[in-house]
Amino acid sequence: MRRDRKQEIDFNALIDAAYDYRFLLARGYSYSQALDVIAQRYMLNRYGKLLLFRCVHSITYVYETLKKITCKCVDYSSYGLLVVDFYNILLTVIALLENSDVFLCDDCLIRDLRGSKLRSGERTFLTESYNILANIFQQCNSFREIVIVGDKNVSHSLEDIKSFANMLSSRLKEAKVTCVLSTKPDATAISYAQMENSIIASTDSVIIEKSRKILPLTTLILNQIKVKPLLDFSQLFGLSCPTCLQNS
Q1: Can you name the residues that pair with 111 across neighbouring β-strands?
Q2: d(Cα 139, Cα 120) in Å, to the nearest integer?
């Protein structure tokens, strides 16, 4: 049993809700307006509403995001700076390790429905998560600099981010690895991701909209550890993800 699904969900109804939600977005409804209408129409619980909010987007957003996705099938040497949205990525890796519900969203990125904080007992997954992330970075070891942006408000954030940075530094000898703790991590990540020749690893839609290029790190990890998403919204809506994101 997956941890996040507290009760059985009618996924047929949820899929119908996703189509209608996307239709309303295309008709100019805001995300909050569309979600309110669909939640009432289909009597969605918190799980269903959160799923639609995180995994279904406007057509404009989706196509703009797909144009930004760059993954391991290309040469990363043209990108001097990799920005890592630390807890955003880390918590999804932990969700994968815990067999929690994860979804391939309509923008071809993997997301979970968990909160933004580490849960009690999840620190036992940190070392394994760091290793998985470091292995991916080693496969595309051509970045000159890696900036890891973390939330200063999270307990033990300095310890967490330094542990990960030290592991990366020991594996990636030619890359400069820098830690940045911020009380406004999204804004800080965006400021780096807007620099020339930068690429960001994040699934935060606000960050994605304002970034130059996207490294779909959570999707690459899902494929590497051979986990299947609970739902594939890209397939549902007839969208083609880049070849390097296809689950083998």
Answers
A1: 103
A2: 32
Among candidate residues 183, 192, 221, the one with its CA nearest the CA of residue 72: 221
- Check whether 20 has a pLDDT greater than 70: yes
In a domain, residue 74? The reply is yes
Summarised one tens digit per residue, pLDDT across range 162-204 is 999 999 999 988 889 999 999 999 999 999 999 988 999 999 9
Which neighbouring-strand residues pair with 78?
none
Residue 15's nearest CA partner among 240, 226, 230 is 230
Count: domains in the chain: 1
Which residues does 237 contact at the CB level (< 8 Å), separation at least 6?
Answer: 22, 106
Within 10 angstroms of residue 240's Cβ, the number of other Cβ atoms is 11
Does 174 fall in a domain? yes
- For the record, the structure tokens of 176 come out as 């400069």
Q: Indicate whether 221 pLDDT > 70.
A: yes
* Size of the chain, expressed as the number of residues it contains: 248
Looking at the DSSP bridge assignments, the partners of residue 102 are 112
Residue 118 counted as domain residue: yes
Q: Determine the structural domain holding residue 159 and report its residue range.
A: 68-229
Q: Is 25 a domain residue? A: no
Question: Coil, strand, or helix at residue 224?
Answer: helix
Q: Which residue has the tokens 């542990």?
A: 163
Interhelix angle 217-224/86-97, rounded to 10 degrees, is 20
| CATH at 206 | 3.40.50
- DSSP structure class, residue 53: H
